[in-house]
Amino acid sequence: MQTAVVKIGKVTTCNNIFLAPMAGITDIPFRGIVKAMGSGLLFSEMISAEGLVRDGRKTQKISDIDEKERPVALQLFGGKPESMGKAAEILSATADILDINCGCSVKKVLKSNSGAALLKDLKLFEAIISAVVKNSKVPVTVKLRSGWDKSSINAVETAKAAEACGAAAVTLHPRTRCQAFGGTADWNQIALVKKAVKIPVIGSGDLKNEADVKKMFEETACDAVMIGRACLGNPWIFREVIYFQKTGKLREKPLLKEKIEIIKLHGEGMAFYKGEKAGMLEFRKHLLWYFKGMKGLRHLKPLVNSLETVTGLNKILEIAGKGDLCGQMM
Ligand SMILES: Cc1cc2nc3c(=O)[nH]c(=O)nc-3n(C[C@H](O)[C@H](O)[C@H](O)COP(=O)(O)O)c2cc1C
């Protein structure tokens, strides 16, 4: 398994192990941690084109970028070519890449003809990609699912359409909208898309460790992979996969002390970036992911579930860092 740079339009990434876009997760603090772990390209949470055009404060914050994390792809969703075009103009002033979400399976998003709903309406799909490409100063990528349902698999068709509309790369998470996150990702669809287009293809779905990543590269010939759920509470997976690519060997897991330092850094970033209380409320779920499998977690849970301050976080980390609880957990 070779590490390789990927050329996405005018952007060249330093490797081919990317962070998947995840709503409510891939914000600036988390992306900062994943960047430090070596990921070659970071995808933001999805950003509403309508919200952005209406200039909502929350939407603006979600589209912020920290200079240190570049290259970063900001992901847009929307069902109207006009607002997607306007949003592309706004976001491409700061983003390195714009990504269009054509895969979200959440009902609220589908209702506005956005996300995976676009896979059912190729005219609108093409109009949206063309509007974003036309108004963007940076390369545009498109994130797909394999189709709406198992009787309408159309990943090859949508990938080719995206390429024809000017997309500089496509990502495929090969589950249908109706599958949501159930069953398994059909990597064969990634291989078919790779054969069908000339632009880089990024594979997504069910990558849990070094062996999975190696297998996806081998089975699909994709140009890059994206890691999603497996990095929750486990951001060091990026450096482990990259190390494996370079050496063929498994990298040691970080020691408890380093894990606690990383968790602390992540938590402090949340407090700094979102405000102490809001940041700590949001950080509770990350802490539970970091501590998953920990023997004795039930003793820490009440503290995690009432976390509101950085002082409270430090107290939790002090307990977790003692090793007895954590030694078995991590
Ligand atoms: C909590 C969560 C939020 C997600 N949010 C987005 C999103 O905003 N945009 C998107 O294109 N995909 C989103 N995804 C899908 C992931 O990017 C990825 O394609 C999918 O989880 C499969 O990869 P995995 O098996 O590595 O998690 C989300 C997934 C999860 C679990």
What does this molecule look like?
- This protein has 330 residues and is of the alpha/beta class.
- It has 2 domains: 6-247, Alpha-Beta Barrel (TIM Barrel), CATH 3.20.20.70; 256-329, Non-ribosomal Peptide Synthetase Peptidyl Carrier Protein, Chain A (Orthogonal Bundle), CATH 1.10.1200.
- It contains 15 helices and 10 strands.
- Strands 3-4-5-6-7-8-9-10 form an 8-stranded parallel β-barrel, surrounded by 7 helices.
- Helix 11 packs antiparallel against helix 12.
- Bound molecules: flavin mononucleotide.
- Flavin mononucleotide binds at residues 20-23, 25, 45-46, 75, 101, 103-104, 143, 173, 204-207, 227-230.
Condensed summary:
The chain has 330 residues and is α/β, with parallel strands linked by helices.
Q: Which helices and strands appear, and what pairs or packs with what?
A:
Layout: E1 6-8, E2 11-13, E3 17-19, H1 28-36, E4 41-48, H2 49-53, H3 57-62, E5 72-77, H4 81-91, E6 97-102, H5 107-111, H6 122-135, E7 140-147, H7 155-164, E8 169-176, H8 187-196, E9 201-204, H9 210-220, E10 224-227, H10 237-247, H11 256-274, H12 276-290, H13 297-305, H14 310-321, H15 324-329
Parallel strand pairs: 3-4, 3-10, 4-5, 5-6, 6-7, 7-8, 8-9, 9-10
Antiparallel strand pairs: 1-2
Helix pairs in contact: 1-11, 4-6, 7-8, 11-12, 11-14
